[in-house]
């Protein structure tokens, strides 16, 4: 396993896109991309975009359980150098951070946007322009962070962005709590899936993230993602072009059920799966309301998880340097430079 660390956002250069086009270009040319956007948009009238199936009529301005109306809201659209190396590369991932979330994790490091809804409303046209601008800055991909509640609008914006010259891969950066039916409509559109598997136990997912059925739902979603894109593939420079990377954040007191998660992933996907085992837990947001989550992850707990990863035979992926209270992982979206 390789080690990676978060780095700053100040690396930029102009880059001219070359090489084969992503498959969403072909779907746009045949009209399929536009059809899928329309199909998903109809789900907003009785919202069924995520596993909550809350049924709110978001076309009339009502908000779903996630807190989102039909209007796009984002907090940032920036070159981001804090993802796994094949995603961030040397020029950064073109990260679009969407406001709101369908989970309510008490320890969320992005709570300002996921729970407090920080951000600004934009049109589909503006989102398309931002995507193209990130490509012009040299980003390797468009990294859609927590996008499930805005998928219809994103696909509509994607069509506009293709018209404006967008040609780089799409990354779907997800908490793992996804509707498989919606994911099926993203086949051929998303090139790289980057989901979490947060928990192995429904009791903990309900208590700390407000989703009793998270483990089985996330696992079904990751299976569908893998069916679409398979194991991670990279180009000659080690930059991701297609495939799946699964993230797992090790939580204190074994709340994440790391041993069960890793064994389950091995059983289903084999040791060729690309895994990102993260040590970056910090007691953010409301975590200090729970004594078991009120301190950062102990080093020995993370090293035990790394040893288990190796013992199970996983060879592809990344582990992190363990550092106590490393604030570089916790963004402040109210600042121009959100990552310290």
CATH superfamily name? Answer: Aldolase class I
CATH topology: TIM Barrel
CATH class term: Alpha Beta
Spans with pLDDT under 50 lasting ≥5 residues? 6-18
Which CATH architecture is right?
Alpha-Beta Barrel
Task: Give the proportion of residues in helices.
Answer: 25-40%
Which terms summarize this structure?
about 350 residues, alpha/beta, TIM Barrel, eleven-stranded mixed beta sheet, 11 strands, about 15% strand, globular
What would you note in describing this structure?
By secondary structure, the chain is α/β, with parallel strands linked by helices. It has one domain (2-7, 22-329): TIM Barrel (Alpha-Beta Barrel), CATH 3.20.20. The chain is 31% helix and 16% strand. It has eleven helices and eleven strands. The chain has helices spanning 23-30, 32-42, 85-88, 111-114, 124-136, 151-163, 180-184, 202-209, 214-229, 258-269, 299-311, and strands at residues 2-4, 72-80, 93-98, 120-122, 142-145, 170-174, 192-195, 233-234, 240-249, 274-278, 317-320. Strands 1, 2, 3, 4, 5, 6, 7, 8, 9, 10 and 11 form an eleven-stranded mixed β-sheet that branches. Strand 8 (233-234) and strand 9 (240-249) form a beta hairpin. Helix 2 runs antiparallel to helix 6. The longest helix has 16 residues, at 214-229. The protein is globular and about 50 Å long. The two termini are 27 Å apart. The model is unreliable at 6-18 (pLDDT under 50).
